[in-house]
Amino acid sequence: MMKWLLVLSALVAFAECFHTIPLIKGKTAREALQEKGIWEEYRKEHPYNPMAKFYQSGTESMTNDADLSYYGVISIGTPPQSFSVIFDTGSSNLWIPSVFCSSQACQNHRKFNPKQSSTFKWENKPLSIQYGTGSMTGYLASDTVEVGGISVANQVFGLSQTEAAFLAHMAADGILGLAFQTIASDDVVPVFDMMVQERLVSQPLFSVYLSSNSAQGSEVVFGGIDSSHYTGQITWIPLSSATYWQINMDSVTINGQTVACSGGCQAIIDTGTSLIVGPNSDISNINSQVGASTNQYGEATVNCQDIQSMPEVTFTLNGNAFTIPASAYVSQSSYGCSTGFGQGGQPLWILGDVFIRQYYAIFDSSTQRIGLAKSV
Question: What average pLDDT is seen over the chain?
Fold first, then answer.
């Protein structure tokens, strides 16, 4: 009897350390702009620049990604003020709009008011975040940040004073970066690192599940792995660099033929990029192999009727094959169909939400590796 009680209490203790944040699959900026009939004009003015946040310039960077749709709610301050944020494994800072911001993007988002929090402190340091099209500027502060039931005291974060215009079309208020401190602006300790340092999670890892179609079910789990979201084995891949969640990619193949990343390349698993992004020539090769043609905005369009007959695309990571069917890499809307392969102009590849929807992703910071398993 005693033995079972010990097992039970261990299970209860473990369950308490399992912190889940439900992610909402909301309307994308593209959808909002299409509804207003201004998408084409917007895309001409703001070409997609997915690599903006990967330029190491000493300032934290982000991209104007019109197709991001997953965000979750966190709170900051005492008493708590709530904000929706994109959980972004491709950047490392947390920032939200503030009451000191008068940009258009701050008018239609929730704004943090420091005067209403008893635990708030200014850090007296400016913060600048570069975007593909403009930037966010503001100041660093610290306060209690609550994420999925975990309260992190004295977390340093950014409060915006000005924001790039394209952020007005983004559903989320701000960004919560989950990459490493090595790339954090002002060397701020990221939220997850604070959780690990203060032993607020049972394991130094977090995992991400993105649902394919429905608005419900997507989640980030801090400190654990939710086995109900995947099937089969977890494949562990060591990081090649602990800056972003960066790994070695061996090749991209279609029907056994190498079509991209010949001889190997570097890839980042990034929840904060909606597409799979690679060097221009590689991506145009993949798009032509799957039968897509590129329109004036650089988007690869396909006939929606052709999806059934389009080939799978296989990404081999550290000797392990991860296959994406056409049903997963083609997005369908009332405006037509396009592939989820975007040009980045850099040798670095980004395996974004198109990839993560197919493979449950586990980010283990202590052993510096990524686990991938087939999503359910």
Answer: 89
Catalytic residue among 65, 67, 88, 364: 88
pTM tops 0.85: yes
Structure tokens at 373: 């398993």
Structure tokens at 112: 């943090």
User: Which candidate in 250, 270, 353, 364 is catalytic?
Assistant: 270
186 as an active site residue: the answer is no
Active site residue 270: yes
Distance CA 242, CA 1 (A): 46
Rounded Cα distance, 219 and 312, in Å: 26
Side-chain-side CA neighbours of residue 26 (13 Å): 20
Size of the chain in residues:
376
CB 100 within 8 Å of CB 161: yes
Token pair belonging to 71: 């965000």
Count of alpha carbons within 13 angstroms of residue 161, beta-carbon side: 9
Query: With contact defined as beta carbons under 8 Å apart, do 342 and 335 qualify?
Result: no
Question: Could you read off the pLDDT of 244-259 as tens digits, one per residue?
Answer: 999 999 999 999 999 9
Q: What is the 3-state secondary structure (H, E, C) of the chain?
A: CHHHHHHHHHHHHHHHCCEEEECEECCCHHHHHHHCCCHHHHHHHCCCCCCHHHCCCCCEECCCCCCCCEEEEEEECCCCEEEEEEEECCCCCEEEEECCCCCHHHHCCCCECHHHCCCCEEEEEEEEEEECCEEEEEEEEEEEEEECCEEEEEEEEEEEEECCHHHHHCCCCEEEECCCHHHCHHHCCCHHHHHHHCCCCCCCEEEEECCCCCCCCCEEEECCCCHHHEEEEEEEEECCEECCEEEEEEEEEECCEEEECCCCEEEEECCCCCCEEECHHHHHHHHHHCCCEECCCCCEEECHHHHHHCCCEEEEECCEEEEECHHHHEEEECCEEEECEEECCCCCEEECHHHHCCEEEEEECCCCEEEEEEEC
pLDDT per position as a tens digit, 155-205: 999 999 999 888 888 889 999 999 999 988 889 999 999 999 999 999 999
Q: What is the distance between the alpha carbons of residues 41 and 33, in angstroms, rounded to a whole number?
A: 9
pLDDT of 53 strictly over 90:
no
